[in-house]
Amino acid sequence: MNRKDEHLNLALDFHKEEKQSDFDNIDFIHNVFSEINMDSVDLKTNIAGYDLSHPFHINGMTGGSELTKKFNQKLAILARETNTLMGLGSLSIALRDESTQDSFKIARKENPNGIIFANLGADKTLEDAKKACEIIDADGIQIHVNVCQEIVMPEGERQFSGWLDNISKIVDGLGLPVLIKEVGFGMSKSAIKSLKEIGVTTIDVSGKGGTNFAKIENSRRTNYKYNFLENYGNSTVVSLLEAQEYVKNTDIIASGGIRNSMDIVKSLSLGAKSVAMAGRFLRLVNELEMEAAIEEVNNWKYQIKSIMTLLGAKNISELQNTDIILINNVREWAELRNIDVKKLANRKK
Ligand code: FNR
After folding, report:
1. CA angle 119, 73, 65 (to 5 degrees)
2. Which of 103, 107, 316, 345 has its C-alpha lying 20 to 30 A from 282's C-alpha?
3. Are 244 and 339 in contact (CB under 8 A)?
4. Whose CA is nearest to atom 18 of ligand 1?
5. Domain that holds residue 120
6. At which positions is FMN bound (predicted)?
């Protein structure tokens, strides 16, 4: 089986049970007097220079084979019908093998006016990024940084020098928004600082807690297993805490293990401007007919509005002034990293 199909099938397999999450270590304070009406809640946000009608999107996943083409088609229809930004999977294969380009182009064909991001690894050049964007007439590109995945991947890359330089050239020369993302191992303060220093303004922390690429790649190994990396990485919540000093002047995106609308609202409240989901959208289009999938996504919008009403937040910026209480290991992490937990717990004016 080719690698793209294997990733897709393993991602679906490894998601059978709802897991415990660091999101369970964040509490809101119950707001007895909401004093706002649900129809006054505004879900609008803006990332990478694009206005979004709601604060979540489809993260980069797939393409490169017949099976993944079918998934890209479904995801693109869902994106079109729900007005959702969508990222495609790495187009590296489309640069090497023209015959695979259709599996990506299908997204643009189904959603000619939607916001669609291309995707490549940080080992790629500015020329590669330009070509990848041309193939799908992209509105921007996601560049993934995935050292841990490459390390565990049997046929993975072993040279990691020069990534920041590649990213810097792409940011300076592409002429389209560039979003840097992890793939489920999270980001630290210093990673975000390094990206900011080279002009990156949109960063998806993509933390641990959802699709687990250490596990996926490890299961593709026949020997020299990397079981000890299966729990490696920083959770999405921890990564958002790490990003605190940047949330005001950077488009921080939360992703990695987003299970439900409450996880979305908690991420937004920690400063994310949008919340991306990969595994969850993959399962949605795998399990439901299109009409039901569309209804489900529209229901998420309604649920987010409900939670914001409950918290008395009319928009995302007000949500970011809601008090949040960090408990257990998340609190310990914040304290050790000099992140002011008391300030987060007492933000409301
Ligand atoms: C991914 N992801 C991914 N990311 C990326 O930047 N380029 C890629 O090609 C892929 N490929 C891919 C395939 C499949 C099948 C899945 C499920 C995911 C990673 C994805 O964008 C995201 O960062 C992680 O999956 C964590 O989010 P979830 O799945 O926990 O919501």
Report:
1. 65
2. 316
3. yes
4. 61
5. 3-345
6. 60-62, 90, 119, 181, 206, 211, 257-259, 278-279
Name the domain count of the chain: 1
pLDDT tens digits along 129-168: 999 999 999 999 999 999 999 999 999 999 999 999 999 9
- What letter represents residue 216's amino acid? I
Question: Which of 109, 123, 114 shows the shortest CA–CA distance to 84?
Answer: 114
Count the Cβ atoms, other than its own, within 10 Å of residue 185: 24
Q: For ligand 1, is residue 11 a contact (CB within 6 Å)?
A: yes
Checking DSSP bridges between strand 324-326 and strand 26-28, what pairing results, if any? antiparallel
The two three-digit tokens of residue 203, written as one number: 């960063």
Tell me the two tokens of residue 184.
Answer: 């489920």
Identify the DSSP state of 176. S
Contact 139, 116 (CB under 8 A): yes
What span, in angstroms and rounded, lies between the C-alpha atoms of 41 and 305?
A: 6
Find all residues with CB under 8 Å of 159, minimum gap 6, and list them: 123
> Mean pLDDT over residues 103-109, rounded?
98
Residue 258 in contact with ligand 1 by CB distance below 6 A: yes
> Residue 8 belongs to what H/E stretch?
helix 3-13
Give, in order, the Cα–Cα distances in Å from 128 to each of 74, 269, 285. Answer: 26, 36, 30
Closest CA to 252 of 237, 231, 232, 234: 237
Question: What pTM was computed for the model?
Answer: 0.98
Indicate which CATH number applies to the domain containing 304. 3.20.20.70
Taking the C-alpha atoms of residue 291 and residue 235, their distance in angstroms, rounded to an integer, is 33
Residue 116: burial class (beta carbons within 10 Å; 0-12, 13-18, 19+): buried
Check the annotation: does 149 bind a ligand: yes
- Angle between helix axes 163-173 and 126-136 (nearest 10 degrees) is 50
